[in-house]
Amino acid sequence: MRILVCLIFVLLCGCAKLAHLDELLTLKSVSDNQRQIQIYLDKQEKGFNKLKEDIKNNRLKQGQFKRSIIDRYSEPVLTEEPAPENVGVKEILLYRHPTNYFKSERIYLYFDESGRLLSWELKPAED
């Protein structure tokens, strides 16, 4: 008799899990996405801090290709075309902390038409 009661209990619990399988799978998917987002943000933050450190220690050099900089420091927050008065500059990459938008230093990298680094600018965080 006890075995029969246990078997019925197990079957009922299993049915409850199957009835909510879609919801459970959705929660698992959200959890997986949150992990992926955190991994991405950690990578962005690490790249930004490395770039900032390399600038402050004079390790960033003119003439480096844009692709090698992105590979080393991660994707920029923003890519933009320069104002007309920036003669010789074809593209500007902006780096900053990935989540502290307004309390972060900003780094602007300026590239020529061939994708080589011309110069950079490290701006302090705005108060």
Could you give a short description of this structure?
The chain has 3 helices and 4 strands; from the N terminus they run αααββββ.
List keywords for this structure.
single chain, alpha+beta, Beta-lactamase Inhibitory Protein, Chain:B, domain 1, 3 helices, 4 strands
3D structure, described in words:
By secondary structure, the protein is of the alpha+beta class. The protein has a domain at 62-127: Beta-lactamase Inhibitory Protein, Chain:B, domain 1, CATH 3.30.1450. The chain is 49% helix and 17% strand. Strands 1-2-3-4 form a four-stranded antiparallel sheet. The radius of gyration is 25 Å and the shape is elongated.
Topology (SSEs and partners):
Blueprint (H helix, E strand, L loop, with lengths): L1 H18 L1 H36 L9 H8 L4 E3 L10 E6 L9 E6 L5 E7 L4
Antiparallel strand pairs: 1-2, 2-3, 3-4
Helix content: 40-55%
Into which percentage range does the β-strand content fall? 15-25%
**In order across it, which strands form the biggest sheet?**
1-2-3-4
- DSSP, total strands: 4
Per CATH, what is the topology of the domain at 62-127?
Answer: Beta-lactamase Inhibitory Protein, Chain:B, domain 1
